[in-house]
Design goal:
It is built from 9 helices and 15 strands. Strand 4 (176-183) and strand 5 (186-193) form a beta hairpin. The chain has helices at 7-11, 19-32, 42-58, 61-70, 89-96, 132-137, 282-287, 349-358, 368-382, and strands at residues 124-130, 139-150, 165-167, 176-183, 186-193, 202-204, 216-227, 236-239, 255-261, 267-270, 273-281, 289-294, 300-305, 314-317, 335-342. The strands form 6 sheets. Strands 10-11-15-14 form a 4-stranded mixed beta sheet. It has a 3-stranded mixed beta sheet with strand order 1-9-8. It has 383 residues and is an alpha+beta fold.
Amino acid sequence: MAQKRDYYEVLGVDKNATEDQIKKAYRTIAIKYHPDRNPGNKEAEEKFKEAAEAYDVLHDPQKRQQYDQFGFNGPQGGFGGFSASSMNMDDIFSMFGDIFGGRAGFGGFSSARRGPQQHRGSDLRLKVKLTLEEIATGVTKKFKVRKDIPCAHCHGTGAEDGSGTETCPTCHGSGVITHTTQSIFGMMQTQGTCPTCNGSGHVIKNKCRHCGGTGVEKGEEVVEIKIPAGVAEGMIINVPGKGNAGHNKGINGDIQVYVEEIEDERFIRDDSDLIYNLLLDFPTAALGGDVEIPTIQGTKLRVKMEPGTQPGKTLRLRGKGLPAVQGYGRGNGDLVVNVSVYIPKTLSREEKEAIEKFKHSDNFQGDAATKRSIFQRFKNYFN
């Protein structure tokens, strides 16, 4: 069994921390390791419970004083029976749900876990691969999703032949049960979800033979998901209400769509800017002339290159990049053009003779300022 960590260490606060600092630290850790955000992650679940145990002691002035004086066990062997190993998630939500400001979860959990609850279906996770063109304009994608849907036989109620439900005999319709434990501070009461009705407050009289009383069955649904313009690799788009159906006409879960970008052959993405590498022929670089630059919008821009354009020159075409994703900025990024000059690997005899004529010309030797600039770039590269 792992050794317990100091409660102050768990929350990342010092021993002089105020109640507000302790509350803020617990909320940060609880959000990070919340089971809705870390589905199936046992390590995250244990850290979530560990933080709740630490907060239970440190936010209570009397318990905190006892902990500071006697350590984990207290003067009489404990702090009322609350330990990370013994508490379940519903117990923690019941005790500390208000710490989340009205939402204990990231997918529809209500922090108010008192009274009958509706069952919530689990979330689904999908991946979508997008081209830069799709990212530039936004796109609607269709997915055929296999998931839990309401049972066609009982219409999602879970009851056979409309037999209906009756009040849960364990919790008498409240959806919660009360645990009473003896502690050094007297009798302590905590509330948890009723195990008989799973918090709904009622039980089915005659369960549906098709779904076994759950009210759901496996099925398929075609889901249209609108991807906004400007999204980036790693972003998650939440689609509410399109996940698995909740048991017994409960609340549907969500679909979380993970964005992946398909590498583009022309452009390199830098946030909302796009980088285009222009390979310029030597005559145009030397004499100047018009070139065409492609854009992600599908058009081409005619740009005038000045005579004597040097390799490494950068052009910035304002507003021709990607749009900022809604809520994370405004307008469009830029299209950044990096100029390279193409030097032929092979030359005909006539071409060689033509170039030989200019080999010793001062204009082809480069002026002193240009040489200094090249030397400085070379020096900076190796430093």
